[in-house]
Amino acid sequence: MTRSFLILPLIASLCITFPAFTHAAPTASQNVTNFQLEARNVPGIYSKADILKEHDRSWILGVYGEDLDYKRNIFTKTLPIHTRISNSDIPPRLDDNGGVLERYSRTKIAYVLDDQDQTIGVAKGYLKNEELDKWEAHAEVKALQATAKSSHEFDYGKKYGWPVAYDFRPVIVMNYVEGVDIVDSEQYQNAPRKEQKEMEKRYMKLLQNEVYYYVKKKGILHADFHSGNVRVTFNGGKIKKVKLIDWGYPGVFTVKKSVSEKDFKTWFVERFAFCNRQK
């Protein structure tokens, strides 16, 4: 069942009708062609134009991490043996036909637990050991290093037995981010439609500010901001703040910090409608 989440445009001059939210909405990784980055002789890595298509802009410079030397392996240390990973995997996102999106078929995600089985983080492990997977793991670590407020927010290394039994694989462990997907929140689901509309307007504004912050301060664009990649916290029935999660390929790009706020806002509104469209 699709939950309606109709968003009012923040820019009055843009006559856009925002469609309903759905968890199954594929974003950056949908319908890519076989065009690969010339800068990387790695099968499966796509250019920014191929990923973003009509949402590509001249101020978006390229896929984040496309120039890094991933062969200087940073996944050499073994993660602490006390890093306990749940036996229950977090279900991957699906495409419009109910199939697993290609990027999620190459990784496994599960919660990290403490000694009392309380969730303290999320682990992302790479199922394959091909060049694409090595590069992607390094690119995500680079993005986390650039965007995290503290190095204590994440860790990375190799782990034996997960996600592949009897073998080592690169694993990234990220602290648990407080909040919920707004679509799943009790505050949104139980609110009258009038209050939902106010909530939607505030959600979009805060998310716009969050994405723009990383553009201006870090030169990084998170372009895969469907509701599943945003954690919302509430103060009573009002949204307090939003936080982006999942800084991995193919949703992260290098951008010009000098992009104007006007150009960014125009792009954001269009991209938001795409990321959160109805099936």
UniProtKB/TrEMBL annotation:
Keywords from the named record: Signal
Residue ranges of domain ABC1 atypical kinase-like in the record: 169-251
Region forming the signal peptide: 1-24
Domain of life: Eukaryota
UniProt keyword annotation of Transport present: no
Keyword Cytoplasm on entry: no
Lineage: Eukaryota, Fungi, Dikarya, Basidiomycota, Agaricomycotina
Full protein name: ABC1 atypical kinase-like domain-containing protein
